[in-house]
Backbone:
């Protein structure tokens, strides 16, 4: 009995009128945890009841504390008939179970009803007293911290990265139980909401146990998904990376420890000493087919051949000293990783020095037939399915010479009884520093050699023994190691990467019709279609990448969605130009019938169009790789033809293609043959992409290379569109419609957010679904962040001016120096990585400040406000027992802090809860993580027209979900949600019956942040470690 | 093929001022899109008509969802009050996260009204009957019926809330509807006119603008209501001070006592002589004008005559002066001496009432004395 949960119901407000006669409500509250229920008194005839209840105490096992939500039901008392429910509040008490997270939940929480939406608010207080549990065989895992953030959280340091943790739990879906026929929709929805809350809690507890077993204390990159398998059940599954985290000591002046964390982008680094670019190379696609179609006992299953997206090239001899060193490294890290069943890391960003080399994207898919889960306590089939896929991923990674997979994620798509399981990640070689205790000298020596800006691009596989025909060149940065010509990854752009120009969102969209089929037949049809779908997506990505003059993709996410009569594929990634990789060639169009003059004319027109677009894009994204002196080093490198080609049909061989004179000169080009309608369509798709309007940038990663001076104006948004198709469309027609749908959605976003220009849409996360036949649903969640144009221009100038280049390279050196130092420091040193970076950061910002005095006034004023605020807090007598972290932070309480900072309106601000899908808030420092937010809501209506149709219904629901997330964060004492994502948005409608239903699942990390400007004003050492932050108008 | 569903929800609610205005003006979505296209927003932002339509529909939906909050800005106000109640903050009305300056804009524009519309209903009873006639008003003013209804409902809503409230009228409106000062004053005028049912629709009054009336209402509220003289909390600003109206009857002595009238005239004429071009007309008209003004005062005790206050001012004073081509400087001069001279009269005792009466009359007439 190691825990006591206490809850107090204070008051309610804005309650709905439940008694028509008096226009009032006689409200009371039921507080339920597990099987225990308490009730408050009835507060008669009021819409703003003041219950002020006693403390309700629940004495429970900590296992239950983790699994169960606290359930608060507000009811209207009725003397003669049954009491009417007004609504419910589910409170996840998990954040209270961890000493470093929140200590109390207190605030106004919306009362939610699945039929009516938000109906007023209730003020509650919840606390937990935990007793020490010394039982070694316990089933609970209280105290393990969970983070949705897919990088090491901002105020922590990774002592050790233990590795992959996964778990899944299954249950019957209440919506499909027999009892659902006789109960009300409300009861059914509530049963579902409650079940998913319970399952999430259980899942989290089980994952926590695994983490404790591994010796960790936290899960980073926690990704929980649920699969609504319909008749066959409900699966909730999660993956994450187990870590041992250590809080960065808060006694250090906050600004000095991590000033650059608000804008984790870096200076553009041009590398004047880049390697010769004479080396031609070819790009081909190897598609090693792993068709391991195994039949599982319980049903049908097909494993689908998958592609390895890696940078590919051929020729070239071994690099100088890379070979032996790499072998050595592999030996060492292997020992660390081989102990693990799956060396997978759902992380997308890493502590400096962790990620050594990147091989390429590995992915695996498998088509399964769903079967009813007979025994929920033993979810073995589902486990086995995922095991199979993970094994495949592991072997793919091995083929690329990598021992680990980073940026790993899993997803499903379900249609009737067919389910596609997908997993993807990036094969990589990691430093063993975070995985083993004790320093390894050899490894450090190796790290010293690798320059941080290009090291990750160097191929991890053995040049002489590459798994596919490939062509490599020497790295354009260090000229020592081999790099591929194109690099695809699922991770974020490493902060230390050398990038030329800016990046942009690149999407490949595909829609294919399929025949209607049932059961096994259907599964076969789908698994036959999948390889083609994936292949074409890849082709499209590659073409679009070339069209933008870029050579690498980050954050690649391929989503495949199945419907009854079609398959949708959407690949999103952020394209960049990595300075270390060779410049991409253009795209060359080749016709098959050169005799026809008009045809040739047509082709040359198209060619011109493409060349123009490439040139325009290069200008737009500021891609001007430094012209380098031609110089051949190393062993003789074969000079193949200056082109590469795209295999549309395997029958063609490159020799048959007529050579066209390319405006791109010696650069290798990508050949597109217009030999069939498909290719025409491809080219069409290439050229119809709408360019981003002036002032906008977009990416699906956390940061945009080349932009760092973010202002504090951020705007998170969700946009959903459902498109109804006409019957009988060809694949081409569908394709066009789907592509236009995505393009138009983007256009609308740009238009909506035009007031934020110049701005960048970051973390653009598209999800597609086929809710029913002839419907396509696209949902986007992203954040728009404004940045300072002037500084941007300045930076542009800087890179042009020689003196400034010098300054930057100096900085470069400093960065490298620091990292080297870093590498030599044994990991337990508390000052290691962030410190090193911070010095560079402050160095830079000091320079910025020396020319900019305008910020001084700002700081003065914030000083004054700070004082005022302090006076205010004291006067209010807000006393709170705080943990050491809170005491150390310059401001004692999150909520009082948010009072200030808006100058425009009567001197103080509205308490705003910010939301962002990113792991950081620009211009601010996260000082505390309060716990994970993981909420699941169902909303249903039987009066769709009255609620403004489907759009009105969903608009309200999404707004309500946002409101509830904000309220729960605020109740935890937070003022922002980071790493926010809407993982599920299932919308179903029946306009004829005037009905609609929607399920939404959202998650994120509740945090307290402080504006850097505020930190500055309180920091004693303002001069030494000031960062220039834009504390200008708070736009959001 | 059609877009079945299209929503955009921001953590901070995004609202376009221009579209908001179009919505307030009662434009349909399609009309609003047309106006926006003509406005050139498309070229500016490289958008298409499709994008514009989607955006406009989305904004309209947002406004409709916000409208019920705008009816009770005090609800929205909770958000504003966060600043002062940190304990109870953050969770109030969380459905829309709108920055305070935006909230202020939303409220202000929602409660803004067209001068031409308000001139039509000013002084009328804010009843269902009047609301039924709004389509006539709409045709007459060219303002959409939807917009007319919104404006009318706003008047009525404000009227209902402040009607029974104690304390200063303008302040009450400002607090309950969070309106900026000027707008609160205008609403005070509208409420005051509706409550006292002043006649403003007669042809002779057509030349007067709403702002003329609002100014006069301000004068009346500040000087002639019960709230004007003492600050007892349980008095109201919407009704005229009955006691004062009663006392006004005493002023009749100025015209009934022949000696007093002559004496008053000679004092005024002595003071005016040589200072104006229309001296002869002033001298000739003195008795008429004085009778007019004093009779207005004496009759104000009857509710029916209160209604005719403005028409009386025009008929009894402004029109005669205008036909004699007085300038407003002349009027000012005349009224100043007319007011002051009365205090010198030996037998005239009602100085306080006279000052209170003439102060308002003078500023009202001066405001109304234009073409």
Residues:
């Amino acid at each position: 009995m190691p825990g006591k949960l206490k809850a107090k119901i204070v008051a309610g407000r804005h309650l709905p009128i439940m008694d028509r006669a008096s226009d009032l409500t006689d409200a009371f509250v039921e507080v339920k945890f597990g099987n225990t229920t308490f009730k408050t008194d009835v507060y008669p005839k009021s819409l703003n009841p003041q219950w002020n209840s006693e403390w309700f105490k629940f004495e429970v096992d900590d296992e239950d504390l983790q699994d169960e939500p606290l359930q608060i039901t507000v009811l209207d008392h009725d003397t003669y008939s049954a009491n009417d429910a007004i609504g419910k509040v589910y409170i996840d008490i998990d954040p209270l179970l961890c000493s470093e997270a929140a200590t109390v939940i207190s605030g106004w929480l919306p009362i939610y009803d699945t039929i009516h939406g938000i109906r007023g608010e209730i003020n509650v207080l919840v606390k937990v007293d935990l007793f020490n549990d010394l039982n070694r065989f316990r089933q609970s895992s209280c105290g393990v911290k969970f983070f949705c953030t897919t990088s090491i959280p901002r105020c922590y340091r990774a002592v050790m990265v233990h590795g992959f943790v996964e778990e899944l739990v299954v249950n019957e879906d209440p919506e499909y139980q027999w009892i659902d026929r006789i109960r009300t929709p409300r009861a059914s929805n509530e049963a579902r909401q409650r079940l998913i809350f319970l399952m999430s809690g259980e899942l989290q507890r089980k994952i926590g146990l695994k983490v404790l077993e591994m010796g960790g204390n936290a899960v980073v990159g926690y990704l929980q998904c649920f699969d609504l398998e319909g008749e066959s059940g409900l699966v909730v599954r999660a993956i994450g990376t187990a870590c041992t985290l250590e809080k960065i000591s808060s006694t250090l002046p906050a600004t000095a420890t991590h000033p650059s964390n608000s804008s984790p982008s870096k200076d553009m680094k041009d590398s004047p000493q880049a390697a010769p670019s004479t080396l031609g190379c070819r790009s081909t696609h190897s598609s090693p087919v792993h068709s391991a179609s195994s039949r599982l006992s319980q049903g049908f299953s097909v494993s689908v051949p998958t592609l390895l997206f890696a940078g590919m090239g051929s020729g070239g001899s071994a690099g100088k000293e890379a070979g032996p060193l790499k072998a050595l490294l592999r030996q060492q890290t292997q020992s660390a990783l081989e102990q693990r069943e799956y060396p997978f890391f759902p992380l997308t960003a890493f502590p400096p020095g962790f990620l050594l080399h990147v091989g390429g994207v590995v992915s695996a898919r498998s088509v399964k037939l769903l079967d009813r889960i007979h025994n929920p306590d033993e979810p073995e089939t589902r486990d086995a399915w995922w095991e199979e896929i993970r094994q495949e991923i592991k072997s793919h990674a091995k083929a690329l010479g990598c021992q680990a997979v980073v940026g790993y994620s899993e997803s499903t798509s379900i249609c009737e009884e067919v389910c596609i399981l997908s997993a993807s990640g990036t094969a990589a070689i990691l430093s063993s520093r975070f995985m083993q205790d004790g320093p390894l000298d050899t490894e450090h020596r190796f790290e010293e050699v690798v320059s941080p800006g290009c090291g990750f691009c160097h191929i991890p596989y053995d040049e002489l023994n590459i798994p596919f025909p490939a062509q490599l060149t020497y790295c354009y940065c260090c000229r020592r190691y081999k790099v591929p010509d194109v690099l695809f990854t699922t991770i974020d752009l490493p902060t230390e990467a050398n990038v030329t120009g800016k990046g942009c969102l690149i999407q490949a969209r595909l829609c294919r019709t399929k025949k209607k089929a049932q059961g096994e037949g259907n599964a076969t049809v789908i698994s036959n279609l999948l390889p083609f779908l994936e292949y074409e997506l890849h082709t499209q990505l590659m073409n679009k990448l070339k069209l933008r003059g870029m050579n690498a993709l980050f954050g690649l996410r391929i989503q495949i969605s199945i419907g009854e009569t079609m398959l949708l594929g959407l690949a999103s990634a952020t394209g960049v130009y990595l300075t270390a990789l060779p410049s991409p060639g253009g795209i060359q169009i080749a016709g098959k019938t050169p005799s026809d003059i008009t045809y040739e004319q047509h082709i040359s027109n198209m060619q011109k169009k493409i060349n123009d677009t490439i040139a325009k894009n290069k200008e737009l994204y500021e891609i001007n790789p430094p012209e380098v002196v031609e110089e051949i080093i190393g062993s003789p490198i074969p000079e193949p033809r200056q082109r590469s080609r795209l295999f549309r049909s395997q029958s063609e061989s490159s020799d048959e293609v007529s050579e066209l004179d390319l405006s791109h000169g010696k650069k290798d080009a990508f050949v597109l043959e217009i030999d069939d309608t498909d290719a025409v369509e491809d080219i069409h798709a290439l050229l119809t992409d709408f360019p981003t309007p002036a002032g906008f940038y977009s990416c699906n990663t956390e940061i945009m290379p080349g932009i760092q001076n973010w202002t504090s104006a951020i705007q998170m948004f969700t946009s959903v569109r459902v498109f109804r198709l006409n019957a009988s469309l060809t694949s081409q027609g569908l394709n066009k419609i789907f592509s236009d749908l995505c393009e138009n959605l983007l256009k609308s976003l740009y238009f909506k957010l035009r007031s934020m220009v110049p701005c960048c849409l970051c973390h653009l996360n598209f999800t597609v679904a086929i809710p029913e036949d002839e419907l396509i649903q696209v949902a986007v969640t992203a954040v728009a962040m404004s940045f300072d144009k002037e500084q941007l221009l300045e930076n542009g100038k800087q890179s042009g001016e020689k003196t400034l280049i010098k300054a930057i390279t100096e900085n470069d050196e400093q960065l490298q120096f620091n990292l080297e130092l870093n590498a030599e420091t044994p990991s337990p040193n508390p000052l290691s990585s962030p410190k090193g970076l911070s010095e560079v950061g402050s160095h830079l910002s000091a320079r910025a400040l020396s020319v900019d005095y305008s910020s001084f006034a700002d700081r003065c004023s914030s000083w004054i406000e700070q004082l005022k605020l302090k006076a205010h807090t004291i006067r209010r007598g807000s006393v709170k027992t705080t943990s050491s972290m809170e005491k150390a932070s310059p401001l004692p309480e999150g909520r009082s802090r948010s009072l200030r900072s808006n100058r425009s309106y009567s001197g103080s601000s509205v308490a705003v809860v910010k939301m962002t899908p990113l792991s950081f808030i620009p211009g601010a420092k996260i000082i505390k993580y309060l716990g994970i937010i993981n909420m699941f809501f169902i909303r249903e209506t039987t009066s769709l027209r009255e609620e403004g149709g489907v759009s009105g219904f969903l608009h309200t629901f999404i707004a309500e979900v946002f409101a509830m997330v904000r309220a729960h964060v605020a109740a935890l004492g937070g003022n922002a949600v980071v790493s926010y994502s809407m993982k599920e948005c299932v919308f179903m409608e029946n306009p004829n019956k005037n009905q609609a239903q929607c399920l939404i699942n959202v998650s994120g990390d509740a945090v307290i942040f402080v504006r850097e400007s505020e930190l500055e004003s309180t920091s004693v050492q303002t001069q030494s470690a000031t960062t220039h932050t834009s504390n200008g108008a708070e736009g959001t | 093929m059609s877009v079945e569903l299209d929503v955009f929800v921001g953590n901070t609610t995004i609202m376009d001022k221009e579209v908001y205005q179009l919505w307030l003006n009662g434009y349909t979505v399609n009309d609003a899109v047309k106006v926006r296209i003509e406005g050139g927003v498309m070229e500016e932002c490289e958008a298409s008509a499709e994008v514009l339509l989607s955006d406009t529909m989305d904004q309209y939906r947002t406004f409709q969802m916000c409208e019920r909050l705008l009816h009770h800005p005090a609800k929205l106000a909770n958000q504003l009050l966060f600043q002062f109640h940190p304990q109870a903050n953050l969770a109030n009305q969380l459905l829309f996260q709108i920055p305070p300056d935006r909230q202020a804009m939303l409220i202000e524009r929602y409660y803004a009204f067209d001068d031409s519309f308000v001139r039509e209903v000013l002084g009328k009873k804010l009843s269902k009957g009047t609301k039924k006639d709004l389509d006539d008003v709409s045709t007459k003013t060219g303002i959409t019926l939807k917009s007319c209804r919104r404006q009318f409902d706003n008047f009525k809503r404000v009227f209902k809330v402040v009607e029974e409230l104690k304390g200063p009228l303008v302040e009450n409106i400002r607090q309950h509807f969070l309106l900026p000062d000027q707008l609160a004053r205008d609403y005070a005028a509208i409420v005051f006119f509706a409550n006292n049912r002043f006649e403003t629709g007669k042809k002779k009054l057509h030349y007067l603008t709403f702002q003329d009336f609002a100014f006069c209402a301000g004068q009346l509220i500040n000087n002639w209501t019960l709230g004007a003289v003492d600050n007892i909390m349980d008095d109201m600003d919407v009704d005229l001070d009955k006691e004062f109206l009663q006392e006004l009857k005493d002023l009749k002595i100025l015209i009934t006592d022949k000696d007093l009238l002559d004496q008053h005239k000679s004092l005024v004429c002595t003071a005016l002589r040589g200072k104006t071009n229309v001296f002869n007309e002033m001298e000739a008209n003195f008795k008429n004008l004085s009778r007019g003004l004093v009779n207005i005062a004496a009759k104000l005790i009857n509710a029916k005559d209160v209604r005719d206050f403005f028409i009386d001012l025009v008929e009894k004073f402004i029109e005669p002066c205008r036909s004699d081509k007085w300038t407003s400087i002349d009027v000012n001069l005349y009224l100043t001496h007319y007011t002051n001279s009365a205090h010198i009269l030996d037998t005239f005792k009602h100085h306080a009432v006279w000052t209170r009466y003439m102060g308002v009359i003078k500023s009202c007439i001066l405001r109304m004395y234009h073409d």
In short: The first strand of chain A starts at residue 3 and ends at 13. The two ends of chain A are 46 Å apart (CA to CA). Chain A touches chain B through 74 residues (CB under 8 Å). Chain A has a mean pLDDT of 72.
